[in-house]
């Protein structure tokens, strides 16, 4: 869980969910998922836009791609977990699990999403060396 109040900006994980997430058979990684919520929350809003990471010019394309994919999930036309269509924040968390755990299939099946996430998460390595 991601905390509020005194636990604001803190993350609490159970050891079992941490182990389960990093096991080879799991699709779901709670540690990555909750950590992404924290990154998302760092700019003050849990809205699926990680403003500290995403270049300004990519916010619009990211929103477009996110909403397009959420639509597809809701129509049952996507392989991405239904939970990602809950809202923008869950979309970012779920698609980030996918990005870090199965980058090859994400790149193959969702090249635009992959390219956007690659820029968001690899910004440090690319631009500020
Ligand atoms: Zn979540």
From TrEMBL:
<dbReference type="GO" id="GO:0008237">
    <property type="term" value="F:metallopeptidase activity"/>
</dbReference>
<dbReference type="InterPro" id="IPR024079">
    <property type="entry name" value="MetalloPept_cat_dom_sf"/>
</dbReference>
<dbReference type="Pfam" id="PF06167">
    <property type="entry name" value="Peptidase_M90"/>
</dbReference>
<dbReference type="GO" id="GO:0004177">
    <property type="term" value="F:aminopeptidase activity"/>
</dbReference>
<dbReference type="InterPro" id="IPR010384">
    <property type="entry name" value="MtfA_fam"/>
</dbReference>
<dbReference type="GO" id="GO:0005829">
    <property type="term" value="C:cytosol"/>
</dbReference>
<protein>
    <submittedName>
        <fullName>Glucose-regulated metallopeptidase M90</fullName>
    </submittedName>
</protein>
């Amino acid at each position: 869980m991601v905390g509020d109040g005194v636990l604001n900006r803190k993350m609490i994980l159970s050891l079992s969910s941490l182990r389960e997430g990093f096991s080879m058979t799991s699709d779901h990684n709670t540690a990555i998922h909750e950590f992404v919520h924290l990154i998302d929350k760092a700019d003050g809003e849990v809205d699926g836009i990680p403003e500290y990471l995403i270049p300004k010019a990519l916010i619009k394309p990211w929103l477009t791609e996110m909403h397009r994919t959420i639509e597809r999930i809701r129509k049952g036309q996507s392989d991405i977990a239904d939970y990602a269509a809950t809202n923008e924040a869950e979309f970012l968390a779920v698609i980030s699990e996918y990005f870090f755990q199965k980058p090859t299939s994400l790149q193959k099946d969702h090249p635009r999403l992959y390219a956007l996430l690659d820029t968001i998460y690899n910004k440090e390595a690319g631009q500020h060396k």
